[in-house]
Amino acid sequence: MITVMIAGPRGNMGREAVKLVQREEGMKLTGVIDYKFGGKTMQDTGHMESLDIPVFETLDDAAKNKPDVLIDLTNPETGKKHLRRALELGIRPVVGTTGFTDEDIEALSVLAQEKKLGAVIAPNFAIGAILLMKLSVMAAKYMPEVEIIEQHHDRKLDAPSGTAMKTAQMISDVRPEASQGHPEEEEAWKGARGADYEGMKIHSVRLPGRVAHQEVIFGGEGQTLTIRHDSLNRASFMPGVKMAVEHAVAAAGLVYGLENLID
Q: Which residues hold (S)-2,3,4,5-tetrahydrodipicolinate (predicted)?
């Protein structure tokens, strides 16, 4: 039995994660972390009212229950703090937020190895989105002219999305840095061509009604190729969360990106 603590239980992703752990026979929810309702139960807060699950104000408080895994679905700032603190407390973190720098990942990897604990950072938990990344790398070897369009709900805080950034980074491993478009092109309105990553253009759309969507468009002589993924609801992320939890328990070291867990 894998005992699990969830940070961010009131968010859209957090609520789905609570449902996931509750229905999985091999997992047990031992508590949640919510700074607004520490000391209460989920039943008391009016969220998931049928659950008599304790709510802790901080991760240090929650650690008294000795969970095997922390699932953090909060925000970039809190996620970074929770990942490090979880490792220090002997808890395996699975973090679904973005904002980690290369230096952060390197330092946290060292800490995970020192503690002999598994840890996962996933910019995207959707299996289809991970397959999109891997297929994009395959395509970029032969069609290096590429742009990325990502669309999310209008409450998303960061742009570009972590998935778009991760996709661009993976493509850059097989694509030489090169600018795209006319060499003398000019933006009549600043930002019209999107963000630039090693010559690749990345465009972010934020609109109500969206969940998480990305397309990677490749252009070549007389042809184009578009690879697209759509998450239509947050339940689409839960198989990836389950995969990450099971890996964190079974292995030691930090994994950045679920693509490293898929053959």
A: 153, 162-163
**Domains located in the chain, CATH noted:** 2-121+235-261 (3.40.50.720), 127-232 (3.30.360.10)
The widest CA-to-CA distance across the chain, in whole angstroms, is 63
156 is catalytic: yes
In this prediction, residue 36 carries a pLDDT of: 87
Q: What is the 3-state secondary structure (H, E, C) of 132-186?
A: HHHHHHHHHCCCCEEEEEEEECCCCCCCCCHHHHHHHHHHHCCCCCCCCCCCCCC
53 contacts 77 by C-beta, under 8 angstroms = no
CA distance 55 to 85: 18
Tokens representing 115 are 């503690």
Judge contact between 42 and 109, C-beta under 8 A. no
183-220 per-position pLDDT tens digit:
999 999 999 999 999 999 999 999 999 999 999 999 99
